[in-house]
Amino acid sequence: MTSANTGSHLDRQVPVDDRAQDASAASPSGDAAPPVNIRSDPDSPVARDHAYLWHPFTSMDDWLQQDPLIIESGAGVRVRDIHGREYFDGNSSLWVNVHGHRHPRIDAAIRQQLDRIAHSTMLGLSNPLAIDLAERLVKLAPGGLNRVFYSDSGSEAVEIALKIAYQHHVIRGERHRSHYLTLANGYHGDTIGAVSVGGIAQFHALFKPLLFQTHWGPSPGMLENGFSRPDAALEPFVNLLSENADRLAAVILEPMIQAAGGMALMPPGFLKGVERACREFGVLLIVDEVATGFGRTGRMFACEHEDVHPDLMCLAKGITGGYLPLAATLVTDAVFEPFRTPDSVFFHGHSYTGNALGCAAALANLDLFEENRVIECLAPKIDLIRRRLAPVTELEHVAEVRRLGMMIGIEIINDKAGRIPYPPEQGMGAQVCRRARDLGMITRPLGDVVVFMPPLSSTEEELNAMLDILIQALVDTTSGSDTNGDAD
Fold first, then answer.
1. Is 394 exposed, middle or buried (0-12, 13-18, 19+ CB in 10 A)?
2. To the nearest whole percent, how much of the chain has pLDDT over 90?
């Protein structure tokens, strides 16, 4: 640990693995980078970032007061900033990296494809790698998903699924089926259709006048003052489905865990119950596997936990191993068949649909899954995380540790006994993440939920080092953080 005081304080509350080292060991360069007077050098990367960039999901006024961390390289589960300091990539570069940075197999696949062609259009043409990848995805996906439509991001994959579901009904003479049913607390992306089925007010409320009609059922893991309520949400959700079945184009949800909603978990049987209700009332089921797909939950796809077979499935993030923007929407033959006639063309496409470089990276990614038996090798890593984080729930300001596979959210709270959250302006989740960065690991919060989602390739030694930092950051930040229950 970084000091005898913080180390002993941590040891009293949470066991640290006996291989734990000083936090500076997380990076070979050790100490923090020397201060840089960014405002005296208008040509510095920081000054030019401040002058020209608009960052996503970022308060730019706050950003412009900071010296931002600028990453210039990476290898394995670490990234390096422009000053040479290394950090563990504790959130897989926003949940995308699978096998580590600069993996030689994926690097080589992209370079080899560059010697052939970087891109050609899929409008009126095809390419061998897009064909190969589509075949591989169909063989991996839950049975029945036999057609692949490519795009560039998770939001687009969702947008495409929503449009396909609606047009499917229009072709069948059911134009009135234009509504969607989803879960409160859900997140499906930032394009207008994806926002329409989103359930996080902070992200979506502003755009309400632009959105189409959506019905929201209660989230089975809805957060309430820092605690999840795995209540009987299935019955009210099914009631909404039955009441609106004749006007629903589809049901859409994230399977098993609502990631951006604070890693809120579904109770066992919920997802399967939704599938049964969709079949009973003749409503299409869309599963958004953008965050959960490609091993994050311990299975290749989260649907597999409850043997769910959706009508449409959305993939992105881990599809290229975290290398290039690529996404896919998979559909069943029953969904696809009405689109075959000349007057039923699906008028949707993107300039870089089926990009050859992205497909090359994705194929190498899938090869690594097979050759390294990635899914089979996750069990001991998942168990290590479970064991290391079990005592964390006893910390005074930890409300709950939620996890599924390699997706972890740690909810921190001001007053556990009184279920009183920290005042939002205190930004305690962000403070924990800043402390983790100081100690050598990068991650991001979801409000006061601290996310830990390391690359699947992380070794047990690397996981222990990252967890040491995470636990240290939680203790350092929340100790003495009480605000006397005053959230006003």
1. exposed
2. 83
In a domain, 485, yes or no: no
Looking at the structure, tell me whether residues 324 and 382 fall in a common domain. Answer: no
Q: Which helix (H) or strand (E) holds 224?
A: strand 223-224
The CA-atom distances, in angstroms, between 333 and each of 144, 150, 310, 311, 339 are 7, 16, 12, 9, 10
- Whole-angstrom CA distances from 240 to 183, 194, 234, 453 are 11, 20, 10, 33
What is the secondary structure of 337-366 as a DSSP string? GGG-SGGG------TTTT-HHHHHHHHHHH
Secondary structure E strands in 350-430:
398-404, 407-412
What CA dihedral angle connects 389, 390, 391 and 393, to 10 degrees? 90
Measured between alpha carbons, how far is residue 294 from residues 98, 137, 315, 353 in Å? 8, 11, 9, 20
- If one counts every other C-beta atom within 10 angstroms of the C-beta of residue 337, the result is 14
Q: What is the pTM of this model?
A: 0.89
Beta strands at 327-332 and 398-404: parallel, antiparallel or unpaired: unpaired
pLDDT-flagged residues of the chain (< 70): 1-40, 222-231, 481-488
d(CA 88, CA 80): 9
- Give the containing element (helix H, strand E) for 87: strand 86-89
Strands 312-315 and 284-288: parallel
Which tens digits make up the pLDDT trace of 200-214?
888 888 999 999 999
Q: Which of 403, 366, 311 has its CA nearest to residue 103?
A: 366
Domain of residue 23 covers 4-102+377-478
User: Which single residue is written with the structure tokens 């936090």?
Assistant: 23
Task: For residues 131 and 86, give the distance between their C-alpha atoms in angstroms, rounded to a whole number.
Answer: 39
* pLDDT value of position 37: 55
Give the residue from 317, 344, 371 where a domain finishes: 371
User: So what's the pLDDT on residue 28?
Assistant: 39
Residue 164's pLDDT is what? 98
Residue 382 and residue 365 share a domain? no
Assess if residue 61 is contained within a domain: yes
Instruction: Write down the pLDDT at residue 204.
Output: 85
What are the tens digits of pLDDT across the range 365-411? 999 999 999 999 999 999 999 999 999 999 999 999 999 999 999 99
Count of structural domains within the chain = 2
**pLDDT at position 222:** 57
At which residue do the structure tokens 């992200």 appear? 203
Looking up residue 15, the CATH number of its domain turns out to be 3.90.1150.10
| Matching residue, tokens 């965050």 | 291
Question: Running DSSP on this structure, what letter comes out for residue 289?
Answer: -
What is the DSSP annotation of 164-205? HHHHHHHHTT-TT--EEEEETT----SSHHHHHT---HHHHG
